[in-house]
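debug: dumping io for the single-chain case to check the tokenizer round-trip. Nothing else runs in this session.
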Amino acid sequence: MDIEKLEAAAAAQGTTVKSLKTSGAGKEEVEAAVAGLVAAKKALADAITAALAALPEGAPEAEALKAKLPPPPKPSNKDKKAAKDGDAAKEAARKAAEEQKLAARAKKKEAAAAKGVKEGGGKGGPAGKGADGAKPDGAASKAPAAKPNGSGAAAAAPVHAKPMSNKNYELHFGAAAPPLLAVVAARLVRQEVALRRVDPKALPSGCDSVLYLPGGSRSLRGCGAIARYFARLAPPELGAYGAAGDALSASEVDEWIEWLSASGPPAAATPPLLARLARHLRMRSFVTGHAASLADAAAWLLLRQLPAPDKACSGAGVHVARWWGCVEALPAFKEAAQLLFGAAKDAGSLEIPLPNAERGKVVTRFAPEPSGHLHIGHVKAAMLSAHFATQYEGKMILRLDDTNPSKEKGDYETAIVGDLQRLDILPAKVTHTSDYFDKILKLATKMLQDGVAFIDPSPKEEQQALRLQRKPSPHRDAAVEENLRLWAEMQAGSAEGVKCCMRAKIDPASDNGALRDPTIFRCNLEPHHRTKDKYKVYPTYDLACPIVDAWEGVTHALRDRQYSDRDHQYVWFQQALQLRKVDLWGFSRINFVKTLLSKRKLQWLVDEGRADGWDDPRFPTVAGILRRGMTVQGLKAFILSMGASKNTNLMGWDKIWAFNKAVIDPSVPRYTALLADGLVPLSLEGAPPAPFAETMATRPRRDASPATGRGGADRAAAVPL
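debug: decoded output
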């Protein structure tokens, strides 16, 4: 039978199958027709394959024959069920084989453990006691671990020998019960540990976690024992197990862990913990000692498991809130939060790719208004602009947006440049928006001529009312000649001109208020600090910014998210004026608790004599916080830790001072001062009769300078308290 007849037979059989299915025929009849269709397609495929084999290589009719090959038949329900049953059988066989392997391993481990106990002679195994005082294989400590921090008992157990040769520490644990306190302890003492989630059946009986020491011949069991081992392993001056050389401080660490272990689940344990912390931290920075210890880690872990730990700690009083902000800012706790609780990396990362960025061609800009000193909110914009310019090997422009002579002063410009220098932010060049006033005026005239702007002489209140009602101004469709006449009056500063403003024709009915025919030029008769009386009209920031960005070659404009509604306006101006496109990138605004960042309000405090000046230590300005004791390194670390995220941040000042403390703590001495009023004398029996002075070593610090390595102490029989 030739191929055409076979092809026609297969098509006819396919039509039969389709008609049977649509007519509701019986199941057996349909299956018989489907079997006939499969046989017809197979015969057609065999005939085409034989014809292709008979053709010489490269024959032109081969492609036509290949196109006629029917697709492979779809598997029937019976075939699918048979395949599924086969897969299930294979999976069952695989699981049975795995269980047999695990049973064999467990039997081998029990034999090895029994052999180890026999050889050890009851002395704790061949390894004996470690040099750090911790017994191997689970005998390091018999105190229970903190329940919320990985509730594994630290009881002594037979040696659990694991046939492995690991070069580093390996922490094995079941997926359902991660040893939280042990993980945080490792981060706290900067100890690298490989974390391994394993089948709980592979762990020793009654144990939720095992730490294998390098070499694999020794191990520790239980979250509490492992955490204490890491704390003891650290240098004493690190304070992970309380103050160095202070047995009482180390015992306090144990007492806190045991108390937390017996406190129950986080929801029940939180109220008594917060109450105790509120009392305990009145005169302390940390729970025990002079640095974050294992006790701080245990308390932090319990609170970290709450739905809203920040809110709970802030509501527990100033001392708990201060402690919480401090430990949350420490690198060890931040890493643990990201690893164990999926915490975000401080609101954002700096490794964010800018859209359409090319290395060597990126140009960013920082455009503050010289109407006051820089505050900490400006610092974020400046540092991010400088960071991305450096990252892409480009440049950053400092542009002083001097478009409002009523608020701006030359002194503020000098202060802004000086503040940036103190922050090690050096722009490629410094420009002013006023450098482009002539060109912007010409462009505004062209906007009137092209009908994309108009002059509105109506009162300000009427304009605002119409905007709220989403109605156009009655002067929106005025003739071009009338608009040009009023524009000339505005530039001359006449009595008629000062009543007018120029507005862009965008969309008075837009849902976005920034697009409802915004004002782009206003009259201002006050002298400009640079151009004096040359101009009587000045562009708004909304108009000048997209124009000058395009003219100065800016490729990426980083803007506070408060301008997100104006991003569409920015794009409209560049498109309507046929300017080069500038990519916009929004970042989150910094908000501080109980802090004024408004320059207008800060200026009022200065003018009213409520503050010493813009560098008042109570001000959130760069000059103010640096005068208060903030270091440039600490300020930069705080700003850059938030990254370029778009999430809104509400910060507490304790966090920024924690960054500062991390910078200055290794190199500065600490002193205690007493107020002269209300001193109470204390007499010591057996003290030397005459006072004398003694020089002694101060608390060791990492990277401490020689000047801070010694301290003075006066000793006398009577001292004030």
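debug: round-trip ok. The longest strand covers residues 169-174.
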